[in-house]
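Quiz preparation item.
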């Protein structure tokens, strides 16, 4: 629509469509307006779904609303809006055939059933904004140290198909872009969603420059697990202390042996005790301790980290959205600590 909030895309046009120029004036003008922890959000993260659909689509708007109303963030100073991921960038991870089918509404009924969504132009648009958001968060983190999206974590998407509410693998698309553009060379993906990051593990199974770490419920979806570089399969009912001990030991080891120069963090809240699809028993305070640990462990070593909210399921959209904001609250604390140390 002309005359409204038209903004120039960060994706340069014409011959160089698959590049984002981090030295361009447009990029710096955009970033210069951001003060404090960068938050990546777009109203286009949400699309219409049939009534009573199992996916809690409305949570993405509620997350940003709570962050603003609880004064965790200042909307005018901290929020950056992503562009939709272009086809050419999605195709660095996904097959051309699949991207063409998904972008243009040509997936079959069976393929759609496996994703949990009936295809619509709105769905494709939402997924492209969400993937663009994770990519933007990664690029901003390179320059600011940290960034958090209010969506993302679509880790069940494989190179040639969607699955389990995931259509494009935003974590893989962002990681591959950083590698291709030589913006990072050793990327760690920390996936603490209660479900295994099977799509991400499969996409990077032969890539030594990406370390996939998934800590998940052994008995939960996906029932056929892929092999991550490190999988920790937890038994049902695991509580805060055990979860945090296992996490601390393993993350510490990975960071010191793999020595990542970039981290993507999927902070799914479905390990929570009240989650409809989770089977673990983690409390609000357990999630907060988890996010504080991951973000400070990475940040104190000077490694940039981009976070996404991952999965979370509840009949109460308000409770769920509040739960997702634990990530942004934890990141804000770490951000303030980190920036004070740098003064
Ligand atoms: Zn999940």
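Solution:
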């Amino acid at each position: 629509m002309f005359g409204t909030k038209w903004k120039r895309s960060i994706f340069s046009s014409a011959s160089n469509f698959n590049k984002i120029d981090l030295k361009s004036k447009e990029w710096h003008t955009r970033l210069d307006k951001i003060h404090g922890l960068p938050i990546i959000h777009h109203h286009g993260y949400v699309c219409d779904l049939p009534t009573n659909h199992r996916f809690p689509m409305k949570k993405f708007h509620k997350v940003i609303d709570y962050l603003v109303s609880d004064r965790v963030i200042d909307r005018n100073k901290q929020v950056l809006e992503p562009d939709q991921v272009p086809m050419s960038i999605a195709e660095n991870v996904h097959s051309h055939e699949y991207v063409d089918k998904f972008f243009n509404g040509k997936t079959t009924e069976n393929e759609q059933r496996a994703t949990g969504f009936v295809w619509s132009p709105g769905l494709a648009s939402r997924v492209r904004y969400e993937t663009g958001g994770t990519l933007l968060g990664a690029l901003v983190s390179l320059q600011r140290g940290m960034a958090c999206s209010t969506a993302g974590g679509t880790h069940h998407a494989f190179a040639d198909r969607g699955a389990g509410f995931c259509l494009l693998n935003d974590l893989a698309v962002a990681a591959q872009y950083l590698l291709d553009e030589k913006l990072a060379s050793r990327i760690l993906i920390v996936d603490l969603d209660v479900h295994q990051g099977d799509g991400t593990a499969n996409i990077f199974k032969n890539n030594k420059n990406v370390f996939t770490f998934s800590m998940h419920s052994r008995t939960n979806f996906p029932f056929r697990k892929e092999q991550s570089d490190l999988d920790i399969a937890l038994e049902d009912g695991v509580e805060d202390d055990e979860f945090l001990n296992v996490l601390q030991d393993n993350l510490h080891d990975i960071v010191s042996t793999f020595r990542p120069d970039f981290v993507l963090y999927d902070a799914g809240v479905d390990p929570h005790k009240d989650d409809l699809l989770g089977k673990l028993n983690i409390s609000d305070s357990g999630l907060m301790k988890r996010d504080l640990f991951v973000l400070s462990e990475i940040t104190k070593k000077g490694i940039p980290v981009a976070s996404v909210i991952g999965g979370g399921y509840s009949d109460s959209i308000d409770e769920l959205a509040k739960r997702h904001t634990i990530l942004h609250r934890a990141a804000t604390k770490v951000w303030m600590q980190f920036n004070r140390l740098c003064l």
